Input
Amino acid sequence: MNLFYTNMILVGTIIMLAVISPGPDFAVIVRNSLTYGRKTGFATALGIAAGVTIHTTYTILGLSYFISRYVWFLEAVRFAGAFYLIYLGASAFFPAKKGAEHNEYFSAEKSVTLWKAFKNGFLCNVMNPKTILFFTALFTQVISPDTQGAIKVSIGVLISLTHLFWFSFVVWILTDSRTVKIFERWQKYLEKFVGFFLLALGARLALSD
Output
């Protein structure tokens, strides 16, 4: 097996491990799916994939080198991401007013627009400095700088689609009627747990060196 295919297998493995690793994205998907339903979960997954596309685009264009040079920019992203996670976590403890609509599973569905769900996923991913560092490292250290542009674009598209398919699969499982019946009794407590998890991640991100 030549070096190119070996590197592609390595890249694929790194991408899969990064996608399925629990983090803010996963917590937001869990909360939006179990609290608001399947459509809202899919909108959140689409937002996450869109955020990933932003990262892959500037990295492929070579802008990550300039971003990494300006420590103040990464620090600004870190604090913005931390406060956004804290905001999402706090919103789990102080949910919005109940809306008039009900989805097919929950008897007291709280209203949230699909656009807001999309923004939740998008901003959660875009304002994560660890994601910025991950893509910078991936496209400068693992993927050779001499790799053809078409191959880099293909890898970028693959990363975005992998995120979309994985989180859509998670949404599908979480909103399946059998899964809902399992969590229905504990939905309120699960939402609080996810909120605490997001608050903890936000605080950790804000206080990290």
